[in-house]
Design a protein that fits this description.
Two copies of one chain form a homodimer.
Chain A: H1 24-37, E1 51-55, E2 58-61, E3 66-69, H2 82-94, H3 104-114, E4 123-127, H4 130-145, E5 149-153, H5 162-165, E6 181-184, H6 194-211, E7 216-222, H7 239-247, E8 251-255, E9 280-283, E10 294-298, H8 300-307, H9 320-335, H10 338-359, E11 363-369, E12 372-377, H11 387-399, E13 402-403, E14 405-407, E15 413-416, H12 424-439
Helix pairs in contact in A: 2-9, 3-9, 4-8, 6-7, 10-12
Chain lengths: 441, 441
């Protein structure tokens, strides 16, 4: 039996079977996918991309065509970085076992990683995915606060376990939010003092939870609001909301799965620009440059209640190969000065987009921090989101062999998020392609 | 601040800080662990083992001492198997990206894996951990049945996400079971018709859920009842319980994270001995021989309701390196006939243990399937579990450089679960060490 995807939720840029311009060979692959992997999987783009090779910022299809990767934040130090793959290969051949034996590698990595955090954040626990890290954060927050309620943003994504899917409105209306969850509007830069407005929404959510007899456990946000459409300015705007949460007995969980490891350019972590020290920080995607490793960094006092009644073990989490691989990723970030590169190349990227915005009316607001950029696509006046045009731009860029995607609750924000080894020449290449696409709309 | 583990729950064989006979260097590592990784982690053994290298069934400490690994079911085709590490290294250097692009590797693996299942089980979805696979199974079961209730065994372990921790009584009394969860006694071989007794317990749980207004979603069991103490005979005993669950509208989820991939010797999966076709099957630990990959195999009709309202994506799950690695693991299982090896070596292992049981009164019941063996340690008459002696045996074997552990609700079952490349000579080696330890008690 062949089952077809019957639902795309609010996922922008999902392939719709039967559409697109697939080769016969690729059409056959799509059918094999549906048959073997079932109806819940999605491909990207009107015409999905069949990739066979990656190097640096380039991905290659089986005909050898090169695609400029301006989207993937997992291969953050570049696809198949030789320093990282060498570390994976070497450790795989020596020892790969878990954290219930003593091993130097996981300690060396833990200490190096914690060195990037302000001192109150002094413990790290290892998982395999960002979903698992956020799921663990919830368990710890609930034990620490004795509350159960969580506040998230309206189009938040925090992962796919049952507990964090219930905190992820971006998965679509078919995935129920928990009865203990309140979603607040993202901190949009339009209208008033962003920090005060956001804090007021959070306070209302706290009050509403309390009115329903639900004690607050915490606020969890992606610190650049990736799936809400990228909200980063003005620096510091999160502080009043976090103060309100703490006053109500809740904790602040910074989801750094997307912004973390230098992407924002100004700092290693997205929370830094807000002058805050979170109670917990979840890490994921770029941590192992594709090797499955993720983590939760906590203040010690936050984990005490959990540890007094539970233990934690993740069979593959923080195994010796994961630790060696993640260590190599940090070494590349340092040796190639990738945080600084994210800042300088990101600044040039932003300027190029600002210049295009002067010439193309469909470009509305642009928001960015380092190499995480969001570009609103609008119709007529700035308040009308144009998801249709955003999708056309994404797909025409794909035809021009440049990979990005779209995001936001109205699916009209171009999501631009290249590997951190992106260079000025790649920015120029991208802007030329985008200009051509915009000119041809 | 140094925090110390303040709780060991009912985890047998957890290191208690301050005890044991650690070298100064290893004591320093323990302190570094506590400082960096916090109070929720546990080490194995009274004196933890500091490992640096693994090959086949042998693990090595930093002094070069060899330990016979009779415990680790992750490195199932042997530690650092060259065919597997070569596949990981090769694919890592070519392409490692995710399942939203077309890629041949994940399809080839999916099809090969599904070939090991009876045909109704025709879809596979990829996660990074067994916890995530079971968590996804719960979400799918709840969507399919519109029920929420689950039945597990009294000392079950299904993982560490919030949702599956609530289904895992073995995590200890500090981790709450869900209000929608009922735990039934494990299918102990003592007393009556095992299948009818177990089915009666399951029916009582169904009735009790209904009495509380909770509709059944399903029954989930580890198909060899690993953490309950290893219950495998008589073959077929699960069938009446599963029939009761299906009659009540629930699904049967076979947790094959521990038994799967040939360990039971008689079949690739533990459910096979029960003459059943589950609705879903979760896979994990040995799947990538240490590389983080896990999966959920389902009947297509079971996933329809979930897919009609939700999508599924796991960033690292089923990436190109995971697929290549897992493919290599299957190739080794086939090429080295490891399922057959588990049967023949497991049979000899069992016979050797049976012989020792004739001579040592502290050995009670022995249960096994292939290379998964459970040995009750008892005091006086067979009904008195002796966790203390079990712990002494585990730790004296560790001093003799043979690694096993203990399990079961009363912590008195020796858990013997070596890599599947275990040979007859290793069995002899193990039995000699065990005999010496038993003689010296």
């Amino acid at each position: 039996m062949t089952t077809k995807p019957s639902f795309s939720g609010n996922m922008p840029n999902a392939y719709v079977p039967g559409k697109g311009n697939l080769s016969q060979d690729d059409e056959a692959l799509v059918l094999r996918r549906q048959k073997a992997m079932g109806p819940a999987y999605r491909l990207f783009y009107e015409t999905p991309v069949h990739l066979v090779r990656g190097q640096g910022v380039w991905l290659y299809d089986k005909e050898g065509n090169a695609y400029l990767d301006t989207y993937n934040n997992v291969a953050s130090v570049g696809h198949c970085h030789p320093h990282v793959t060498a570390a994976t290969a070497a450790q795989s051949q020596i020892f790969s076992s878990h954290t219930r034996y003593l091993h130097e590698g996981i300690l060396a990595y833990s200490e190096k990683l914690l060195g990037y955090f302000p001192s109150p954040l002094s413990h790290v626990m290892f998982t395999c995915t960002g979903s698992e890290a956020n799921d663990l954060a919830l368990r710890i927050a609930q034990a620490h606060t004795r509350g159960t309620g969580f506040i998230v943003t309206e189009n938040a994504y925090h992962g796919v376990t049952a507990a964090v899917a219930a905190l992820s409105p971006s998965l679509g209306a078919g995935v129920d939010l928990g009865t203990h969850v309140r979603a607040v509007p993202a901190p949009d830069t339009q209208g008033g003092d962003v920090g005060q407005v956001f804090a007021a929404h959070v306070q209302s959510a706290i009050d509403d939870l309390r009115r329903h007899g639900i004690q607050l456990a915490g606020l969890i946000v992606d610190t650049v609001f990736s799936s809400d459409g990228v909200f980063v300015d003005p620096a510091g705007f999160l502080a009043p909301a976090v103060a309100a949460v703490r006053a109500a007995g809740g904790v602040f969980i910074a989801d750094e799965v997307q912004p973390g490891f230098g992407r924002t350019g100004d700092a290693m972590w997205g929370f830094a620009r807000h002058g805050l020290i979170p109670d917990m920080v979840s890490l994921g995607k770029p941590m192992g440059n594709g090797y499955p490793i993720a983590a939760l960094v906590t203040r010690p006092e936050v984990i005490e209640a959990f540890a007094s009644k539970a233990r934690y073990f993740n069979t593959f989490g923080g195994n010796a190969v994961a630790a060696a691989t993640a260590m190599a990723v940090l070494e590349v970030i340092e040796n190639e000065r990738l945080q600084m590169n994210a800042l300088t190349v990101g600044t040039a990227f932003r300027k190029g987009l600002d210049d295009l915005a002067q010439r193309f009316d469909c470009i509305g607001g642009i928001r960015s921090a380092g190499l995480f950029l969001g570009v609103d696509i609008i119709q007529g006046d700035a308040s009308t989101a144009d998801a249709h045009t955003a999708a056309r731009i994404v797909n025409r860029l794909r035809e021009a062999r440049v990979l990005i995607s779209a995001t936001g609750p109205r699916s009209h924000v171009l999501k631009i998020r290249p590997p951190l080894v992106f260079e000025h020449a790649h920015v120029t290449f991208f802007l030329e392609k985008l200009e051509t696409v915009l000119g041809g709309l």
